[in-house]
Design goal:
Distance between the termini: 24 Å
Number of helices: 3
Radius of gyration: 10 Å
Shape: globular
Largest sheet: 2 strands, antiparallel
Order of helices and strands: EEHHH
Number of strands: 2
Structural class: mainly alpha
Strand order of the largest sheet: 1-2
């Protein structure tokens, strides 16, 4: 499961998405569409991860 109650995501899920964003194999917009997230959320997780 990728999310917890109240829309909170697991640390593992955040790390997975952040790593994919860092690898830049897809754009943040593409990842957002794949994971049904908003691009700003992915960008924030990416900054937190770095």
């Amino acid at each position: 499961e990728c999310y917890l109650p109240a829309g909170r995501f697991t640390a593992e899920f955040k790390a997975t998405v952040a790593l994919e964003a860092i690898k830049e194999l897809k754009t943040v917009s593409e990842l957002a569409q794949d994971y049904q997230l908003v691009p700003n959320q992915i960008s924030m997780w990416k900054r937190e991860f770095l």
